[in-house]
Amino acid sequence: MDTCFSRSTKTNLVKKTAVVSEEMTSQIRLRLLPCAKCLFDEPVQVKVAGLRSRQVVTMRARSTDEKGVVFSSSATYKANGNGEVDLERDPSLSGSYIGVEPMGLLWSMSADTLHKLFQKNRSLNPHVVKFSVHELEGEGRMLAEATNERFLIGDGVSRVPVKEGSFHGVLFTPPGEGPFPAVLDLCTFMSEKRACLLANKGFVVLAVSVYNDKLNNVKEMHLDYFKEAVDFLQQQPKVGNKGLGIISRSKAGDVALSLAAFVPGVEAVVWINGCSANAITPLYYKKSKILSPLLIDLSKAIPTDSGAIIGKYCTNNPLAEENQATLVPIEKAKGHFLFVASEDDLNWDSKAFMDQMVERLKRHGKENFESVCYPRAGHLLEPPYGPHCRSSLHGIVGKPVMWGGEPRSHAAAEVHLWKNIQEFLRSHLSCEATKTKAKL
């Protein structure tokens, strides 16, 4: 751009140029490495350079979810002698978390109002996070900022809404010829996040929700509906020829167990913080009732000062004599199980339910399972690096509930579990090419 100045201002030009040059050399930079664009379940390294030696600053993160709710976090950091802050190396001194937590600004984000779950269920739009660094003093003037776009769906992954027969869902298919292992992602309520993130890893994934209707209208559940989804998934041209896996959490967990027990072709089930029995509604298969409902007694809910309830002990005991007909006969399953329980699950006693299933399988001489416990994690175990939710409205109960989990431990559990899930599914699902070759 051309610059015009009068004779009277010319004498100050040298001084002004010197000042600008000095400011440019000490420019503060906020960098996201290796790239400001990444997948949702990938870590980023947050680094700041150009600060004064030992300068204390506030780091912030801010994002808006699909419902328009703003989530944010902040942490105080002290630069090193070179004026640099590196979240992989340096500890937070105060704020939303304390200590060395490279992804702490992400998992510690929370809403200003109580009982808000971060809603990121649609796969086509990225999770956009604004990182910024601010002066600690005064009004906290912003010194630098950077935008992190965290994509759910990777390059080349196809997303196809499916309405086949009586069921509907969303199918995610990786790029390439395949064959790929197949996974049915059973969500209690529809979410595409976990399914498309798994598809990024080389799985053909069909996301199907347990509840599609208003809950007051759901008087019974039919396993046939989910078997249709299993059959549809197995018939996909890029799917390998041996069985499929199921990933589930909460109420979807007992549906997954029932599919493994009653429907052929289920080779691997990931059960996360679910129930050992058929919860809430009777289950039918081929027009016959196969499992009675294990009921919930909300009078046993524990109130909290926040207004949310603790529902951990509301579920009736599935081992009681009157509830024997609710227990899923998992000993009939031919496939393998990965049982995952959070010991601080405040929604229900997942650890006790897991122990019951392990004991049942052992009693029947079965060794087709592995189990994982996370001591300070809560109910809502998700793919990693999303905001931790302490409490939110429960879709079935209709009230805010406490989910449990110490945020730092819960975040670490999500990182560990996500890797474990992929390894488990790969180890038990075949990707043989014979099915594809037979069609040529």
CATH architecture of the largest domain: 3-Layer(aba) Sandwich
Distance between the terminal alpha carbons, to the nearest Å? 64 Å
Domain unit count: 2
CATH topology of the largest domain: Rossmann fold
Q: How many DSSP H or I helices?
A: 9
CATH class of the largest domain: Alpha Beta
Describe the biggest sheet? 8 strands, mixed
- Strand arrangement, major sheet: 11-12-14-13-16-17-22-23
Helix/strand-derived category reads: alpha/beta
Share in β-strands: 25-35%
Mean pLDDT: 91
CATH superfamily of the largest domain: Alpha/Beta hydrolase fold, catalytic domain
Query: Approximately how much helix is present in the residues?
Result: 10-25%
Tell the overall outline.
globular
